[in-house]
Amino acid sequence: MPTIDVSLSDLCALLGTKMDVAEVDRRLEMVKGELKRGETPEELRVELQDTNRPDLWCIEGIARQIRFGLEEPCGWREEYGFYERHAALAGRIEVDASVETIRPYVAGFLARGWTVDDAGLRAFIQAQETLSRNYGRKRATIAIGIYDGAGVEFPVSYRAVPLADRDHAFVPLPPAGERPPEVPATRWEEAWTPAEILQDHPTGREYRSALPGDRAPLLIDARGEVLSFPPIINSASLGRVVEGMSQLFVEVTGTTLDQVLLATNILAANMRDRGAEILPVATRYPFDTPRGRDVIAPHPLPEKRVLALPLERFRGLLGEPFLAEGEVVSVLQRYGLDVRSESDLLRVEAPPYRADYLHEVDAVEDYAISRGYSSFTTRMPEEFTVGRLSEMTGFVDRARDRMIGYGFEEAINNILTAPRLVRAAMNVPADFAGVAGLHGGPLVQIANVMNENYACVRDWILPSLLEIESHSAGAVYPHYIFEAGEVAVADEAAPLRSRTDQRVGALVAHEKASFTEAQGFLGLLLTHLGCTQATLEPCDHPSFLPGRVAVVRLPGRREAVGLLGEVHPEVLAGEEGFGVRVPCAAFELSLSACAAG
Q1: What is the CATH number of the domain that holds 46?
Q2: Does a structural domain hold residue 178?
Q3: Comparing 256-270, 444-458, 500-514, which segment has the lowest mean pLDDT?
Q4: For residue 195, what are the contacts with CB-CB under 8 A and spacing of at least 6?
C-alpha cells in the first residue's frame, strides 16, 4: 500500500483550517488512511489502504477529500470546472509517428499564478514518484515531468531518435543522491546522448527497463531545446524547477492513453489546490488513439465516472430502507461528487481525477465513508453458523498438496493479465477456436481498465507459469512450477457469458523436458484425484509442438478437461514469446470438471 510523508502545517494550509494530530487521524477515515507518526509532531506518515484511488496518494488529494467534508455540499464542478470549461490553449504538443511503437502517448498542461515554495515542490516530487512507481509500474506505463514553463516555447515536439544521436544530446539533471565516483565532476555540466545516460547515469541505469527498443523518445521545444528523455530524466535547464518560479509546464508520457490522462488530471487538481490557474495543452497525434487525434488535457474522461441507479436500489444495497433522497444527495456531495436526482433516479458523477467508478456499489461505499461508518446502527447476527471449507476448496487443496509432494514449487499469479500474454505470446491467432471447455473464444475484458497489464481475466494458467519462467533463467535447472487457481472461460450459456473454473497448471523446464515427463506427473495427479478413467486424445494446438499435444477426457463428458504437451518454440523464444531458452512441457487440468466426476 502507498505510504506518503505529510507535513502537518502544509496539510492545514491546504485544508484552510487548523487541525491537531488527533483530528487529522480521525479525518483520515475519509481516505482509508492510517496515521503513522513521523520523527517529529510536524512530520507525519500516512498509509493509504485503497489502491483504486491514485488521486489520494498525495497530500493535496488527502486534503481535498477531507476538505469536501468540511464545506457546504457542492460537488466538484465549482472548484475544478477547468476539466470541462477549457480556457484558451496554452500551447500544443506535436507527436511524431516515430514514438508510436515505443511510448506513444503524452499529455500536459500549464500551471501559472502559484509561486513555487518548498512545501509545494516537495509534495509534487513525492506525488510524481509515488504515481510513477505504483500506478506507472516504475515508470514503465507512465512517467511525469515538470519544467520551468516560462522557458518553454510551444509547440513542443515529441519524437524518437537513435540512442546514440549526438545531435540531440543534452545536459541531464544530476543524480539526487551521491554521484558515482567513476564519473568526473565536469561530466555533469556536459551534454549526454540517450545511450550514455542509460549506460552511465544512475537514473538511466535504474529505469532502463522501462524503455523498450533502441530508440529514445524526447520532448523538444520550438527552439530545439530538449526538455526531457522520458521516462528516464529531465534536462538540467528547463527540467530544473526551483522555489520562486510561477509558471510550470507539467507533462505525462506513457503506454496507455487513459492512464496518461488520469495522471494529468490528478496533477492538475493538485496544482489548482495550491492556487494555480490551469491552462490546457492540446496534443496532436499522427495516428489514431482511443480519444481521437487531437486530445486536450486536462481531459474529462466522461464515461469512466458516471453511475445511474434508482434510489430504491441505493437503499437496498446500503441496507437502509428509509433513507431520504435529500440526505443521500447531500452526503454524496460532501464527498466531492456531483449528484442529481431525477424521478427517484440518482445520477452520481465522480470528478475527472477519479477513475474508480465501476459499479453501483462504488457510490454506495462513498456514501458510507462520507456519512461515517460509526453512524450506522449495529446489529448482532440473528443466526449462528459454523464456517468450513467448501467441497471445491478442499478438492483444490488436495490437488495442491499432491503437486507439492511431486516436487513442484507453487506459484501464485494475478487472475487479471494482459491480453497479449494469453493470446499473441502463446502463438494463438485471433481466429483460433480454442479447446472447448478449456480456453478460447472472447476474453473477459475489464471495462474500466487502469493498466494494460490487467486488462482481461485469464482463461488459462499456462501463460502465467511461462511468464514466471521467463524471469527464472538465473535459477538452477530443472524447474518444476505449478499453480492452482481460477480462470474465466467464455461460455454463452452462463449468466454473464463466462464462468469461473478452478484449474491446476504445471510447467516442467529443463534441457530434456518432454511430453512423457509431463504425462507422468499428470497421470499421477489424475490417479490421486480419483480420475482413473481419464484418457488422452491427440489434438492440434498452436501453443504446442505438432504431434506432441493431447487433450484429457473423462468418460461421459463431451468437452475436454485438460491439455498436455511440449510448448512450441515460438511461444518460448519467438518474437512475441516469453524469452525462455530451454524446452518446456506443461499440462493444465480443470479441477472443477474433475470434482464433478
Answers
A1: 3.30.56.10
A2: no
A3: 444-458
A4: 163, 164, 216
**DSSP letter, residue 188:** G
Residue 586 forms beta bridges with which residues? 507, 565
**Cell numbers 524518437: residue:** 160
Residues 158/219, Cβ–Cβ less than 8 Å: yes
Distances in Å between the Cα of 161 and the Cα atoms of 164, 168, 217, 434 are 8, 8, 6, 41
- Assigned domain for 185 exists: no
Please write the tens of the pLDDT for every residue from 29-84.
Answer: 999 999 987 667 788 999 998 888 999 999 999 999 999 988 887 778 888 888 88
Domain identity same for 64 and 121 = no
**DSSP code string of 468-483:** HHHT-TTSPSPEEEEE
CB 160 within 8 A of CB 90: no
Out of 299, 326, 348, pick the residue that ends a domain: 299
Within a domain: 377? no
Structural domains counted in the chain: 4
Which set of grid coordinates corresponds to residue 409? 514449487
Q: Please, what is the end-to-end C-alpha distance for the chain in angstroms?
A: 42
Cell numbers for 573: 523464444
Domain that holds residue 18: 1-72
CATH number at residue 272: 3.50.40.10
Question: What is the pTM for the complete model shown?
Answer: 0.74
- Domain contains 237: yes
Quickly count: other Cβ atoms within 10 Å of residue 558's Cβ. Answer: 7
SS3 annotation, 276-305: CEEEEEEEECCCCCCCCCEEEECCCCHHHC
Strand-pairing partners, residue 508, are: 480, 585
